[in-house]
Amino acid sequence: MNREVVVSGIRSTGYLHLGNYFGAIQNYVKMQDTHECYFFVADYHALTTHPDPKELKPNVFRVVAENIASGLDPEKVALYAQSDLIEIPELYLMLNMLAYKGELEKVPTFKDKVRMQPENVNAGLLTYPVLMAADILIHRAVKVPVGKDQEQHLEMARNFASRFNTRYGVDFFPEPQVFRFNQDTVKIMSLDGNGKMSKSENVSATIYLSDDDDTIRKKIMKAKTDQGPAEPNAAMPDYIQNLFLLLQLTATPEVTAQFTGAYNNCNIRYGDMKKQLAEDMVTFVRPIRERAAELQRDEDAIRKILKAGAEKARASSAATIAGARKLIGINYY
Ligand code: TRP
Question: Which domain holds residue 234?
């Protein structure tokens, strides 16, 4: 059966949190039975910020372990490190010839980086969208499950694909589209009510998959609430809605219904609700955390998974590069 090809890159910096789990990983897990999936750790992308060489491997291995612990099955998908697929930098080089300095300089994420790290505006940062396009086009993917912040990058990948096709006169690369399961992907707000949960900011208001039981309890008990609704069936402020969303995602339907009823009758006690949520959250996160920790202790197992993933991915990336070389005219032998 011919399944649609899906590619997604996982950043290797920072710790995974509930927002990543419900917003992205859960969707990956659903897709692995219905699509031909290529999921990789974007370690080359991480080099744009010049990380400490000692940190690279533990970061990559941790992200792999956390994704597998969250349900990603390396038997079903190709799970690999970007730097293990040598065809990606080759396609990146080819696409760089079709990417223009002007359009790259206009990308909002590039402009943000320039503002944030003016001392390190390297060419890799400028061509970040080209590398991302190479990640996707190397498997001639049609679907890319990414968040809103990556849509512009995906649009650039479509532009590079169609430019290549026009230049060489064949429909070699499909134009990859954003993939969404539902209209809206689940968005988890940070527990202090300020923005989304984050890999690096708002640490005390973000629940990480690596948080221990007591840390989870403490964070939830500190979550922002208020005096409660003043009238029956009142609209919920977003930070309260967020707590109900978390309850819905981790507790039984009965528990959620009970607290929703209390809210609507104006007799909700947020302290009780948070205690309940804390226990349900602890029960939810614990097996993921423990499985991830166990995997991380077995480096050999992770190494094997990454190697097997790269081998699986190479079948399609090698075919793409062979085809692209031929179209470009690099076929001398
Ligand atoms: N840029 C993406 C992010 O910051 C990560 C990424 C790299 C990616 N290459 C990709 C996502 C290819 C999808 C497809 O989250």
Answer: 211-293
In a shared domain, residues 316 and 286: no
For residue 149, how far is the Cα from the chain centroid? 11
Q: Name the residue at shortest CA distance from atom 5 of ligand 1.
A: 9
pLDDT in tens, the chain (333 residues): 689 999 999 998 888 999 999 988 998 999 999 999 999 999 999 999 999 999 999 999 999 999 999 999 999 999 999 999 999 999 999 999 999 999 999 999 999 999 999 999 999 999 999 999 999 999 999 999 988 889 999 999 999 999 999 999 999 999 999 998 765 567 899 999 998 898 777 899 999 999 999 999 999 999 999 999 999 999 999 999 999 999 999 999 999 999 999 999 999 999 999 999 999 999 999 999 999 999 999 999 999 999 999 999 999 999 999 999 999 999 998
65 lines ligand 1 (CB under 6 A): no
For the CA of 153, the closest atom of ligand 1 is 1
Q: Do 276 and 304 fall within a single domain?
A: no
Asked if 111 and 132 sit in the same domain, the reply is yes
Q: Burial, 66: exposed, middle or buried (Cβ in 10 Å; 0-12, 13-18, 19+)?
A: buried
| Ligand 1 pocket, residue 24 CB under 6 Å | no
Whole-model pTM: value is 0.93
Residues 226 and 148 in one domain: no
What CATH number is attached to the domain comprising 252?
1.10.240.10
Q: Residue 72 maps to which CATH number? A: 3.40.50.620
Of the residues 113, 219, 224, 274, only one is catalytic, namely: 113
Quote the number of domains for the chain. 2
**Is residue 259 assigned to a domain?**
yes
* 37 and 145 belong to one structural domain: yes
Fill in the amino acid letter for 8: S
Residue 256: exposure state from Cβ atoms within 10 A (0-12, 13-18, ≥19): buried
Beta-bridge partner residues of 9: 40
Helices (H) and strands (E) counted in the chain, each on its own, are 15, 5
Tell whether ligand 1 has an atom less than 6 A from the beta carbon of residue 150. yes
Q: Does residue 274 have its Cβ closer than 6 Å to ligand 1?
A: no
* Nearest CA-CA partner of 224 in 262, 270, 263, 193: 193
Distance 261 CA to ligand 1 centre (A): 41
Q: Is residue 160 part of a domain?
A: yes
